[in-house]
Design a protein that fits this description.
The protein has 242 residues and is an alpha+beta fold. It has one domain: Sandwich (Jelly Rolls). Helix content is 13%, strand content 32%. It has a 6-stranded antiparallel sheet, with no helix packed on it. Strands 7-11-10 form a 3-stranded antiparallel sheet, with no helix packed on it. Strands 12-9-14 form a 3-stranded antiparallel sheet, with no helix packed on it. The N and C termini lie close together (11 Å).
């Protein structure tokens, strides 16, 4: 099971490419140092175990079944790239209760679908007490909080959007791959809206005859463990998670 919280962040534009693994930094770190060294320079960074003491660290499937099982959610069943500029992605959703969705995860694994971009605090504001804005972050930098819940093996398409985010892994492990904006054209991006879009490339099995420029792309990767926070300052860059 994957359970993660994303805080979307007000951002400038990422102007510096980083090559290699997503770097890590120790805690504590002051707000001033974080802003000058990472936020202002738009360098992605991982803070290991930054959320280990959050109340949300206790979240699991049983918690949501018992406390919020009757909540109606929209679950993504599939996401297909069409290759068209207009409507590049075809997505199928179903409406169900959280209890039924979690039961499907337990019984069917990845076939259960993906609960993504769930603006959980707008529905259950009391859960805000389970989360903590990291001490190095200014609250005015944050705009929205989403929860992502899916079975083992869940993955996203290679995509981009206009929002940077502070990604916090609550349960399970997640492989994060970032591609800097200066390499985005090598990913043959297709706009979906003015603020986000997709690449037609299967990052796990790329067709280099069809997309030869992708062979030169350098990717940043890291595995996030429970309690880890990653600042993915990536507006205009590409991202893949699994």
């Amino acid at each position: 099971m994957i359970l993660a919280i994303t805080f979307y962040v007000r951002q400038p534009i990422w102007g510096v490419a980083i090559v290699g693994k997503i770097p890590e930094a120790p805690l504590p770190i002051t707000k001033a140092l974080f802003k000058s060294k990472y936020y202002d320079t738009l360098r992605p960074i991982i803070f290991r175990e930054a959320a280990k003491t959050w109340e949300a660290a206790k979240w699991n499937l049983d918690f949501f079944t018992d406390q919020y099982g009757d909540t109606v959610v929209s679950v993504q069943l599939d996401e297909t790239l069409t290759g068209e500029v207009e409507g590049p992605v075809k997505t199928t959703y179903i409406s169900t209760t959280l209890k039924k969705y979690i039961q499907h995860i337990k019984e069917h694994g990845i076939k259960a679908g993906y609960l993504n971009q769930w603006n959980i605090l707008s529905i259950h504001p009391e859960l805000h007490t389970f989360l903590q804005i990291p001490a190095f972050y200014e609250s005015k930098m944050l705009t929205i909080t989403n929860l992502w819940l899916g079975p083992k093996g869940t993955k996203s398409k290679l995509h981009y959007d206009s929002d940077h985010n502070l990604f916090t892994q609550i349960y399970g492990r997640k492989l994060v791959t970032l591609i800097s904006p200066d390499q985005s054209k090598k990913c043959y991006p297709i706009n979906r809206t003015w603020y986000d879009g997709y690449s037609p490339i299967d990052i796990l099995n790329p067709d280099l005859e069809k997309y030869p420029l992708f062979a030169d792309v350098v990717m940043l990767q890291a595995v996030l463990e429970p309690g880890d926070c990653s600042t993915s300052l990536k507006a205009g860059g590409m991202m893949f998670v699994r």
